[in-house]
Design goal:
3 strands; 66% helix
Length: 113
């Protein structure tokens, strides 16, 4: 499990030092949001442990690459879903706008005629 400690000697509050542990390896990271860094570290740690359990692999470099591929796959699936959803909403909005324009034109024609 990922753990974190804040470095109290960090001079810049916008760039705080955070010590995290991912797959039993300690890393000193810097960032503006230590809580977010810890959350990311916990996520990566969980992915590496899941891959290790599923593959019975002990090579940490191989585990890191496989975990990275799993995370990249999740990202691209979510991105594709988001992009497809946005396109569908845009198409629907255009259809509704066209239908509204048609109704307004018919209303104007009736008033004029």
């Amino acid at each position: 499990m990922a753990t974190a400690t804040k470095d109290s000697t960090a001079k810049d509050a916008q760039n705080a030092s955070v010590r995290v542990e991912i797959f039993d390896q300690a890393y000193n990271l810097r960032g503006s949001d230590p809580e977010y860094i810890l959350k990311l570290a916990e996520y990566v740690d969980a992915k590496m442990r899941a891959v290790a359990e599923a593959t019975n692999t002990i090579d940490t470099v191989r585990l890191a690459v496989l975990a990275a591929l799993n995370i990249a796959d999740e990202y691209h699936l979510l991105k594709r879903t988001k992009d497809t959803g946005a396109t569908d909403y845009q198409k629907r909005a255009h259809l509704l706008a066209d239908a509204l324009d048609e109704v307004l034109r018919e209303t104007d024609n009736r008033k004029a005629g």
